[in-house]
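Sample entry follows:

:::
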Amino acid sequence: MIARELISSVPVLHPSDTGSKALRLMNEYHLTQLPMVVDSKYLALVEEDEIMDLEDPDVPLESTEYGNTRPAVMEYAHLFEALKLFYDFKLSALPVVTKENEYLGIITKDNLLAALAKYNGVKEPGGIIAFEVDPRDYALSEIARIAESNDVTLLSVNTITNPVTGKLEVVLKTNRQELQGLLATFERFNYLIKYVFAEEPEEEALKKNYDLLMNYISM
């Protein structure tokens, strides 16, 4: 997924706009930044905090100090590049531009979160397994083979390095909710399971609810 596919339609600011107008638009669209655009060119990213510090919010923005930073992402950049900029600059909105700095629109935090959810299979039913391995022992091909041998599809694979232990934490989102067989295989291959989130099969849940009801009735 590329940046231009995540663009939202949000009003832009112009140098002649006042701080009050900027704050009103930010409040209306639930953003803490808005881009300033001049002749279709991206000029700056105006911050809510900067406007709040103005002695007179009704003066035009062109007569104030604004937009000390100009974060932007190119239109054909990958989603992950946009994510890095959101993190580095603590953004609620990220302008998308062409090579000629032509402003195309913004990516909002909500749009970015929705895209990440799709990438990680969040909406798909299934369980989650997390385990630790030494970085030198990490082999995605082996992990995928183990999953495949248990008739499990990996919807997403994420990794993060533990800064204390130096080990790699691997988080798998699967298409299966019953994961006992897969867990047993991972443990047989000496993977250290940290945690598991797996919904019970519907039959098991119904049986438990039925047993609880029978116990309640017999009290």
Remarks:
- Helices lie at 19-28, 48-52, 79-89, 109-119, 140-149, 180-188, 202-217.
- The CA atoms of residues 97 and 103 lie 5 Å apart.
- The beta strands are 33-38, 41-47, 73-74, 93-97, 103-108, 128-133, 154-161, 168-174, 192-197.
- DSSP finds seven helices and nine strands in the chain.
